[in-house]
Amino acid sequence: MGLSEHEQRLLDEMERNLYKHEADIVNTSAGPRTVNYTKVAVGVLGVVLGLVLIVVGVSLKLAVVGVAGFAVAVLGALWALSASRPATGDDTAPAGRAGQGPAAAKQGPSLMDRLAQEWDDRNQR
Q1: At how many degrees (to 10) do helices 37-59 and 63-81 cross?
Q2: What mean pLDDT, rounded, does the chain reach?
Q3: Which residues are 33's β-sheet partners?
Q4: How many CB atoms sit inside 10 A of residue 57's CB?
Q5: Interatomic CA distance for residues 112 and 12, integer angstroms
């Protein structure tokens, strides 16, 4: 079933607005991040150790060792993935703005508020 002419126009307008505001969507994503490489290395070693324990558990037919190996591998992966955190700005940020990140510096309505407003405006026509 094809779209009516009105629906096609609305779809085209929504697509144009999406491309126009695509930069806003990208800018609202997480900013620069820092990585603690020591945590990554420990996490990778944990994953490797867990895999070795899994292989040992299978070869010795000991399910307990295999399950423990799986748990060590999962914990190592979680440890490595937690090594990344948002980069903190300089320590000279004004009081009340420290630790709030780039979202605090942004003025005006959020992306979702603007999209909701555009939707309401379209529906009122």
Answers
A1: 170
A2: 79
A3: 86
A4: 18
A5: 20
Q: Pick from 30, 37, 42: which is nearest to 78 by CA?
A: 42
Q: Long-range pairs for 110-115 at CB < 8 Å and ≥24 separation? A: 110/28, 111/21, 111/24, 111/25, 111/28, 114/21, 115/21
Residue with tokens 């629906």: 7
Mean pLDDT over residues 10-26, rounded?
76
Distance separating alpha carbons of residues 98 and 116, to the nearest angstrom: 30
Question: CA-CA distances (angstroms) from residue 92 to 13, 30, 82, 87, 95?
Answer: 44, 21, 27, 15, 9
pLDDT tens for each residue of 74-85: 999 999 998 887
Could you tell me the pTM of the whole model? 0.48
Half-sphere exposure at residue 13, Cβ-oriented, CA atoms within 13 angstroms: 12
